[in-house]
Amino acid sequence: IWCRVYTKKTIIGQIVAADVALNKNEKIPNNIEHILTEHCSKSGIPEWAIPRIFNIVDNIPITKNYKSSI
């Protein structure tokens, strides 16, 4: 799993979102958002920093130092 986390502007402020690239042959379960949210919660990420929007993408372009090039 590879992930790019960013904020998205809304009419009430900003919301945390994430683009998630799964392994190529991995099936996407119906409850993927719940699984990812639970993983973030159990990992000790503060509640305000857990993404509320998850976008499943094919890949996330990265630079040679493993930063997102988007």
Question: How would you describe this structure to a colleague?
Answer:
By secondary structure, the chain is of the alpha+beta class. The protein is 16% helix and 33% strand. It is built from one helix and three strands. A three-stranded mixed β-sheet has the order 1-2-3, with no helix packed on it. It is globular and about 35 Å long.
Question: Which structural traits does this protein have?
Answer:
70 residues; alpha+beta
Task: Chart the SSEs and their pairings.
Blueprint: E1 2-10, E2 13-21, H1 32-42, E3 53-57
Parallel strand pairs: 2-3
Antiparallel strand pairs: 1-2
Put simply, the count of helices is: 1
Number of strands: 3
Helical residue percent band: 10-25%
Distance between the termini: 17 Å
The outline comes out as: globular
Instruction: State Rg.
Output: 13 Å
Largest sheet: 3 strands, mixed
Strand content: 25-35%
Mean pLDDT: 88
Along the chain, the helix and strand elements come as: EEHE
Any low-confidence stretches, pLDDT <50, length ≥5? Answer: none
Strand order of the largest sheet: 1-2-3
> In terms of structural class, how would the helical and strand content be classed?
alpha+beta
